[in-house]
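Lab notes, practical 5.
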Amino acid sequence: MMAINVVFIILVGCASGLAVGAGFVAFLTVLGVIPRLTQLTKTMNLISWYEWAVVLGAVIGTIGSLRNPVLGFSPYVTVPLGLAGGIFVGMLAAALTEVLNVIPILAKRVRADDKLEILLMAIVLGKIFGSLFHWIYFAEK
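Output from the prediction step:
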């Protein structure tokens, strides 16, 4: 009976991983996020570097989430790494919103076509204050 449970857990884990992986690949390929990101940054010649960065990031992130490592970097190393990660995630989000035309659709829905700058500032400030709130009140110390 115990072996059946273990096999079932392994199958569910593999199926879940395949579903998440397929969704991630569909997200990147159907929406064309990486090519659009390289267009925005004018670095089309480095597209293979972006692709390998995504693949290695997914693999290293998976290994890290399974092993829960404690790296013990100094703040002088951690701050630039955090800034680089934040910049990448921000650029990826910008490329996604650009591809999906989210902001013009949102402005049209809330009838704020003439106040697009205010809408953008609300989104930016909301992201900043939400991140600060999370890190001040919920981050483990």
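Observations recorded by the TA: The chain is about 80% helix and 0% strand. The helical segments are 2-30, 33-41, 47-67, 75-100, 102-109, 116-137.
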